[in-house]
Structures are given as structure tokens and as C-alpha cells.
Design goal:
Rossmann fold, alpha/beta, 425 residues, 8-stranded mixed β-sheet, globular
């Protein structure tokens, strides 16, 4: 049998990777290791963290993936200055390493942490004659516009947006994780033939499954064996509007149930904890993020799960936490724009409810109704499980990625791009 042509190497770039528990890191682990298991040569270039070699120069091997760590250990600062330092250090170190590492014909897949990766990846791919895919997990600076609501930020960001858009158009493909995001990328000049939507999946793939209450050690450890639990699991970040949840908890404060569990960490956790204390919300608890090995238990603690998005963020991010909730068959209560694609999917699938962020009373009433109606919760849970099966999960995503990577579509020429040349690599 004559062997087929060798597959090109796939080089992923993201600031975080294993052993980090951040959602983008966990999903990238699944994708990289899944492609490696299907026979693709895979390298991940990421930042340094605890298990990295002291000098950061020795590549690691894990489950078929070569891991290269660059720069100084990330400080994980929540201040703007600290983040800027981390971004700059990683970007400069990455630029040097990719010049050495990237070979002609490689696929360079650039994620969006830090946001400056898009133009850098385009310049490096051009220099090294590599093929480029932007894997767009969130869209900057538009997400900052929605969060900051500054009239000056769009004005000062205009040159950066033009630079980023040229980088998007230079790539062979742009991949987004949601349809609303894809429509925004298309509005910035990326042709439909180069634009693909490949949804995320539950971290760990098929390993994530419901854990019955009587077998769930975390329900017992957290003292909620006999409670109705409303859970928010994941990043407590600025794109997630959580004030309506605290307002609903305040309206339900005199009732035994529900108990609200915030499981995770993020830049807004301290402020949310302070607000809960000020409001004397004894029905609200904050718990640390759980390791990947306990994610099935952690997600199964919730009888109902909350997913939230701040107004204006619907086209810039997609809450991948949804797939974990579906995998453990739990009803979803989405607090966000009723018009976005996610809200429409939840309603059409019958997997939960959609509540406007402007109506905490409606959220409180909805949670009371779900608490009192186990049959309705069961119907939503079954719909969530069907939705999870129909998405195809990690296996479907890997197949979509293989189809993309196997294409021989010619790269666009840089000379034909409008709006000026890319910066030197």
C-alpha cells in the first residue's frame, strides 16, 4: 500500500494551555490532543507556567502534543498594567520563537489570547510561508466597547481594528465558535468561503456526564443534599452580567430555596462577594473553581444552571460553559438578550428559559416556578441531553477541523489586500 502524503504540522498559539484550568486552555487541550490522536503532528506554543522547564527552552511531550513555553511566568494580574505586561512579554517572546519554529507549509492556528495575536500571526505566517487560521474565541476590541461603554474607545481603537481586519482577511480561514460572531467577522470583510463556524464542546469530550445526587460527593461536601441549587459555573468575568442574579437572590432571600452557588473565579469575584455581603444574601455562596477531574460532579450539583451575557457582547463572545451544562443534562436559564442566537436556540430546543437582564423579578419568579415543578425541569433536562447529543461534541469538532486542515485552497496574496501592508514580523 502506497502511503499518502505526509500531513502538515499544526501549530496552535494561545497564552494558556495545560495544566491551566481556564476554559480556553481545557478546550485547546481537547482539540490538540484529539488531532494528535488522529495522526496530525501538533505543536502548542504557550506561556510559561509551573510545570515548564526553568529556562522555558525544553519542549515537553504530552499525549502526542509537543508543548513549547515562552516568556516569563505569567503573573495572572487582574490590573490593566499587569495584564499589559503579561501580554507584551508573551507576544515578544512568541514572535522570536515562531521565527525559529514555524516552517513552510505548517498550519499556524492563532487563538485570541492575547488579542494582539491576529496581526502578529499574519505577519509571521507570511514571513515563514505558513498557512494561517484565526480561531476566534472572542472579538476584541468590540467586547471592550460593550463592557466599558466609552464613547472614546471606538475612536482610538479604529487603527487597531483596521490592522486586525487585514490580518483576518489574509488568513486562509477564520473559525468562530458561534453564528453571531461569524456574522460580525463577515461584516469586517472576511469572505464567506473563508469563514467557518465550529462550535465548542463540553471540556473533556465524552468523559463529562451526569452524576446522580446520591452519588455526588460535592453535593454532600457543600451541604446542599436537600437543597434546590441554582448554579453559575465558570469565569466571573466582565462580559457576564451577574447583578440581576444577585437582585433575584435578594428577592428570594426569605425563602429556604433556592441556594445560589457561584463556582469559579475571575476579575469580578471580589466585587460580587462584597455586594452579596452588603445585601446580607445568606442564600448566595462562592466556591472555588473545580479541577477538570471533578467537573462532572461540580456541574451536576446544580438543579438549574445560569448562563449570562452583558448587553452588546452577544456577537463578540459565546459562553462555552453551555456545552458542559447540556452534557450533564441540566436546564439552562439564560440572562441576556432575547434576540441573540443563543437565546433563540434555548427556546427552540426547549432546554430552558430566557430572561431579560432588566427584569430580576422575572428571574426570581422563573426560579420559583422551576423549583416547584420537577416535571418541567425533567423535560428541560431531557431536551438539554438531546441537544448535547445532536451537537456531536468533540468528535464532530475534530472532524470539522480535519476537513479544514486537509484543504489545499491557495493562500490569498498580500499585495491584493486593501488598506496597506502588514507590519514586519
Amino acid at each position: 500500500m502506497i502511503p499518502g502524503p505526509a500531513r502538515p504540522r499544526v501549530v496552535f498559539v494561545n497564552r494558556f494551555y495545560w495544566p491551566d484550568e481556564q476554559a480556553t486552555a481545557q478546550l485547546l487541550v481537547d482539540l490538540a490532543e484529539g488531532l494528535a490522536a488522529r495522526g496530525w503532528p501538533v505543536t502548542v506554543v504557550t506561556s510559561r507556567n509551573a510545570p515548564a522547564a526553568p529556562d522555558g527552552s525544553a519542549p515537553e511531550q504530552r499525549h502526542g502534543v509537543t508543548i513549547i513555553r515562552v516568556g516569563r511566568p505569567q503573573r495572572r494580574s487582574r490590573s490593566l498594567a499587569g495584564k499589559a505586561f503579561d501580554y507584551a512579554d508573551f507576544t515578544l517572546s512568541l514572535r522570536r520563537r515562531l521565527k525559529q519554529e514555524l516552517a513552510p507549509g505548517d498550519w499556524l492556528v492563532a487563538l485570541t489570547d492575547p488579542p494582539s495575536l491576529a496581526p502578529l500571526a499574519a505577519a509571521i505566517a507570511r514571513r515563514q510561508n505558513a498557512r494561517l487560521i484565526h480561531l476566534i474565541k472572542d472579538i476584541h476590541p468590540e467586547v471592550a466597547f460593550a463592557v466599558a461603554r466609552s464613547q472614546w474607545l471606538p475612536f482610538f481603537s479604529a487603527p487597531w481594528i483596521r490592522w486586525r481586519d487585514r490580518a483576518w482577511r489574509q488568513a486562509e480561514f477564520c473559525v468562530t465558535i458561534g453564528q453571531d460572531m461569524a456574522s460580525l467577522v463577515a461584516e469586517h470583510g472576511v469572505a464567506s468561503s473563508r469563514l467557518h463556524v465550529i462550535p465548542d464542546w463540553a471540556p473533556g469530550g465524552e468523559a463529562l456526564a451526569p452524576v446522580p445526587p446520591d452519588q455526588n460527593e460535592l453535593r454532600h461536601a457543600w451541604g446542599v443534599d436537600d437543597r434546590f441549587v441554582v448554579a453559575y459555573s465558570g469565569n466571573l468575568g466582565r462580559v457576564h452580567i451577574l447583578e440581576p442574579v444577585l437582585a433575584a437572590a435578594r428577592l428570594l432571600r426569605g425563602e429556604r430555596d433556592p441556594v445560589f452557588l457561584f463556582i469559579g473565579d475571575g476579575p469580578r469575584r471580589s466585587a460580587l462577594e462584597a455586594a452579596a455581603r452588603a445585601l446580607k444574601l445568606d442564600n448566595v455562596r462562592f466556591l472555588p473553581p473545580q479541577p477538570r477531574s471533578r467537573l462532572s460532579e461540580s456541574l451536576s450539583v446544580g438543579d438549574v444552571h445560569l448562563v449570562t451575557l452583558r448587553a452588546g457582547c452577544e456577537r463578540c463572545v459565546y459562553p462555552s460553559k453551555l456545552y458542559g451544562i447540556l452534557a450533564v443534562a441540566r436546564p439552562v436559564v439564560f440572562v441576556g438578550s432575547p434576540q441573540c442566537a443563543l437565546a433563540q436556540s434555548i427556546r427552540q430546543r426547549g432546554a430552558g428559559l430566557v430572561i431579560s437582564p432588566d427584569d430580576p423579578a422575572a428571574l426570581a419568579a422563573a426560579l420559583r416556578e422551576l423549583r416547584a415543578d420537577p416535571g418541567r425541569r425533567m423535560a428541560m433536562a431531557q431536551a438539554a441531553a438531546r441537544w448535547s447529543r445532536e451537537t456531536g461534541g468533540l468528535a464532530a469538532a475534530l472532524t470539522a477541523w480535519e476537513k479544514l486542515l486537509e484543504t489545499s485552497q491557495a493562500r490569498p496574496t498580500l499585495s491584493g489586500l486593501a488598506g496597506g501592508a502588514m507590519p514586519p514580523a
